[in-house]
User: Fold this.
Amino acid sequence: MTDTRSQSAGGRVASLAALERAVVVLVVITAITHIYPGIVEGAPPLVLAGLGFLGGAMLYVRGIRRRTLVIAAIPYTAVQIPLWLVIKAGNYTLVGYVDKAVQVVLLVALLVLVFTQYRD
Assistant:
């Protein structure tokens, strides 16, 4: 895979392969689809979930505990889907459907990342 290398604050080189860049983009999309509606609807849990996604993405890009972040992102993302089904209980929106589709793709990408790049 092609790597994009960038200098992290600690002087270490942090590189992202194509799959990793795709994961970061998907995480940012799902973060935005949580933060914006959370602010508009006045729903702090949505904002917090979105900030959790953004925080994880920022740590990952900086090269901080990447393996741990990828493994933690799987249940963190997976739990969002049933929570949405229960909390929205039939009052689903287009943004919600888009977000859940992004999250399903994100889950697949995270699993591929774990099993291809992090098997030791």
Notes: Residues 3-117 form one domain. Residues 18-41 form the longest helix (24 residues).
